[in-house]
Every structure is written in C-alpha cells, then in structure tokens.
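Session log. Operator J.P. requested a structure for one protein chain; no other inputs attached. Running the standard single-chain path with token output.
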Amino acid sequence: MSDPSTVTYTTAEILKRIEDKIDSNHKEIRQEIKEINQKIDSNYKEVNDKIDSNHKEIKEEIKEFQKDVDKRLNNLEVGQGTLTEKVESIDKRLQNVEGTQKNQIWALIVIVAGAIITSGAKLFFTANP
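Structure written below.
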C-alpha cells in the first residue's frame, strides 16, 4: 500500500496562506466595488447633466412660447381696439343715415301732401267747362 504522507507545514503556516488568499480576494473585491462606484458616480453625473440641459432647453422653449402668446395677445388687443373703433364709426354712420332717412321721409310726405292739396285745390276751385 501507500506510505502515510507527512505534512511539513504547520497549522500557523496553513492559516497564514488562507488568510493571505482571503486578503487578496478582499482587495480585489474592494477594487471592483471602487470601480463600480466610480462608474455609478460618472453615470449619475452624466444623467444629472442631461437632466439639467433638458430642463434649461424646456425653460427656454416655454419662455419663447410665452413670448409668442404675449405677442399674439397684444396683436389681438390691438385688433380688438381697431374693431371697436370701426364699430363706433359704423354706429355714427348709421345714425347719420337714419337721420337722413327721416328727413327724406318727411320731405316726401310734404311733397305728396302738397301735390294732393294742389290737385284738390285745382279740382275744387277751377270750373269745369
């Protein structure tokens, strides 16, 4: 059979080797965690920068939109003022026309009445041969 093997290492040496391997693995894990944290921080910063950039762009677009709306409202107010003036002008013209029509109607009544009176006077005051 086989001869029994003898171990030439002491327990302290074996434990030291195990401890060194654990320390080595621990350092590697720490390094990987550190790299992962750096990547996360980098990505976090990029995302924040993009959000800030988009936020600024949106704010600018809102300001431009608000300026456009204000400009349109001002134009609408100016147009409304012009329309109001035109309506007032039309009202004045209509009053003038109504007044003129009333005068024309009275003039027509006077002319017709005069014609009737004249015809009646001729009829009654002149002899028929």
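Operator note: The mean pLDDT is 86.
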